[in-house]
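Sharing in case it's useful to others searching the archive later.

Someone asked me privately for the predicted structure of Glycogen operon protein, so I'm posting the question and my answer publicly. Question first, with the sequence:
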Amino acid sequence: MSYSFELEQGAAYPLGATLMHCANSKTTTVNFAIYSSSAKKVELCLFDDTGEQEVARFSLFKGSAYIWHGKIIGMGIGQLYGYRISGEFEPQLGLRFNPNKLLVDPYSKDFFGQFNYSKAFDYILNSNDENALEEINNLDSAGAMPKSKVSYLAPYQGEKPNIAWSDTVIYECHVKGGTINNTLISQENRGKYLGLAEPAFIAHLKNLGITTLELLPVQQYISERFLSDKNLTNYWGYNTFNFFTPHKEYLSQGEISEFQTMVKILHEHKIEVVLDVVFNHTAEGNNQGPTLCFRGIDNASYYRLDPNDLSNYINDTGCGNTLNLSHPRTLQLVMDSLRYWVEIMGVDGFRFDLAPILGRESTGFKSDHSFFQAINQDPILNQVKLIAEPWDIGPGGYQLGNFPAAWREWNDKYRDTVRRFWRGDTGLLPEFAQRFHGSNDLFEHNGRDPSASINFISAHDGFTLADLVSYQDKHNEDNGEDNRDGHSENLSANYGTEGPSNDIALTQLRLKQQKNILLTLLFSQGVPMICSGTESEHSQDGNNNAYCQDNNINWLADQNVYSKSPLYRFISKACLLRKQFKIFKQNRFIHQNDGEFELIWLNQNSTLMSELDWQLPHNHMLGYLLVSKHAKNHNDVLLILFNASTDSFVFKLPKVSSVYRWHVRLNTLAHPDLNEFYAADQSIAIASQSAWILSGAKEGRFNG
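And my answer, the predicted structure tokens:
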């Protein structure tokens, strides 16, 4: 096949490969632009359709602001390419240029081929042997590298659901694990983006009451070398190779437009899509990692380097390197990526992994960092859902409650307090009440409402809910690290037997405890997040760090099985019930002197909680009463009762001016009678380790 390309100067903007439509010419043209402040030469390498043969090479023009650019005439969609960049190779100065290493375009929208670790990526490992270092540095990496691919997608045209935060229920899900075993999904789409858009999975989400699907990383990622050496993979995907391309393994037919199609179908069913994104580090790892992209383009601009030794990377992520969002071009890259996923792919928001890193200067975390300011002023990005994981391992790495007003945050204090309360830990009532009622101590200081708190009990990282009530200790042996990885304290309980059990009483207790936790989660002030598999009592066999397990440890069961699960039905009822109470639609924190609601905390005797009641270490019972001062129907008065003790008690239902009957709407017993009505002042038996939802009614039958 013959190739006829012609290079012209082109333009410095936009960055990446941009298809140019010339009105007066039938010849297709692509403009290339890439930033590098220290390079001596930037070469664009073009490859044939196999990606194996380089067919042309052009030196780009160096323009202003360190943008290298060129326009190739006679090229169109589908062309494969990469970069070779020349300059100084002086790691001690932060310079790591090497034209023998083919680099992917940081703005690639598509790829061809697979990444394979090879000797060409090992050069730093042999840094003590100058001869070996020179030999490996001279090896060409092109044969082991995917090739960037010129592509074009039209902007997203679907109508977005725009779910209010007060109505949001999040379902955290892995693209592959969510459907790979689901026989109600077509074979070709199981474990793929389009599998999430098939009727069976959509019906599953709708029946549960989910409004927002939060996907674990879908930006193109690769596995770390140490995992590949152990025949494991980075299943979760927190090792980003490129910030624009959908992970290719999840495509049914290999077309990146499939992601856009998935989003559009989910939107048609009023389900939002939020992406878990990793802008804190890249797959290039530490100073022994492979040169794939940024390291060979402009190492000192894209990464935060150790000021005392520029050959090393600041490692606030624990993954070897840290992106430098204080640099304007790195910040631009991240902003361009976010806008691409919103405007082109159609997503509704983002959950930012290790988010304090995004706001960290050399002097520490700043809530007015340029990254936050850039998003706040951006007319596209300031309209989407923004969620922070508010911790990392860097200095000042725990920032729960300190993100800007428009952000929501994963609330681990909520997670830990609810776990401990239902485990039966002592002295927790004040903390439990505060977390349940929205964590105003964390978020109200800068004008935020309870929706600032993303409430969760389990997530991809840590024990599943089923394992939380089945294992005392972690069991991560399958990860190949001798069970050293993962958290050692999970605030879990096995209730006498480690792992699975055939004891019926034990099994029933574990199920009830899961219901107790879920009822707490779904009726807390804030935004509930449910981890996929919770509804089917999915177990990871006690593995609390299953990031490298691409197997049934992570894959959910067949939908035919889990749709019959008692937890599936329980979550569905709870989500439906939550929507009926206007208390969960408020955009403010409710305090004792609220003008619209009366807030009352009750003790076991159905009287107001005293200071002594709050401080009694072995007090595991709490009543939560919210009464609309303008109550018109039975959903304006809400009573929730928690009993985390191993003892039952009798509770006298309170007298409320607008209530003649109390209606049991939900509880966590094995066989609840949800048609029960009780008179005000009547006593009811509250079973040990149980939770109850009641609403006030002006009329209705009652027992007694």
